[in-house]
Amino acid sequence: MRLLLCMAIACSTSAFGQMFIKSKEADKQDSLFMLNLGKPYPAFTATTLEGKTVTEKEMIGKVTFINFWWQFCGPCIAEFDALNALYGKFRSNPKFQYLSFTYDSISDAKEMVRKHGLPYPVCSIPQKECYRLNFGKGFPTTIIVDQTGKVAFLESGGGKDKEIASQLVLQFEKEIEKLLEKE
Hints:
7 strands; two-stranded antiparallel sheet; alpha/beta; 6 helices; 183 residues
């Protein structure tokens, strides 16, 4: 009986210890993520699937919506329709631009663009570069950069349900509208 009690205590201590470590790690990652708010977006050079070179310098003077995804990410795919609609709403505004990054190969990225009707610029970049530019977060990650080139909004993760994804994208839309109104 005493042995069973000791084993139960050891197992529960181990489980709680792991939860605490995971929680501390999540807090650390979120803190690092939040530290980037108000800071200049990192320097980068990328090429869209259409062959256009883009850099962080092109963000100055525009509200830039940046989305990170990859082809086997359920939440990424769930938000595509809502993101297409968001792009359609703001695409004609000269003070707005949209960038999409994936670490899928160029051919896989082109297939995803075709399959999901993605109308916005997509850049295929190395996985390590995706993680550098999305501050080490997973997928999907959305970052909104203000007209001065500073990070104004960050969101990582999502649900596999299109309705939940649409609600998140509405939040992005409100953030974009607030930033566009500042000028």
